[in-house]
Amino acid sequence: MSGYKTKSIESLEQRIKDMDEGSLRQHILQNAKDFKTSWIELGRALYTVSRDKLYKEWGYSSLDAYTTKEIGIRKQTAMKLLRSYYFLEKEEPEYLKNDYADSTDTALVPSYESIDVLRQAKNKKDLDKSDYQQIKKEIFEKGKDAREVKKDLTALIRQRKELDPEEAHAAKRLSVLKRFLGGLKAVKRELETSKFGSSALIKDAESLIKKIEAEINL
Asked: Looking at the whole model, is its pTM more than 0.70?
């Protein structure tokens, strides 16, 4: 008994048949069909299309238009695929050369969502090299999905901040001041436009706004 195919899969299969056999365009459509298990190949191909602006040769004004209309991938998904692939190429080239190249089971390939979380971890100033390696191990060796890894990343960042109470206090103070400043500016604008406040009150509000801005910029 054959499995149920969604309309999007059937549409992709028809487009694959309509393209020139063996062409890059057909290859990308095939990758799009299977991208949940072979997203790296799709990411690699999309990176080439983006870098060389090949979508223009195919009649599309932008990469977004190409991925949305021809492949059926939303802009957000396409950007995650590109970021995740580029991250692996730049930060984890050995994985692409060895582990991924030698893998015979595409189900073991980390999802692009998990790699996107790893990319975010790499850019977190609160984390050090050992923290990054820990998260990387959870993804590549233990096969954790993006949701679990994101929880681990959030907990790790919170833990690191708790280890430095002075920095945590400073960050909290800045957050409170910014919220207060935003609210005060909104109230001042309302007083001015509605004429509910006297000129003296508005002047005092302006003075307080400047003091808070000075505190934030210290």
From this structure: no
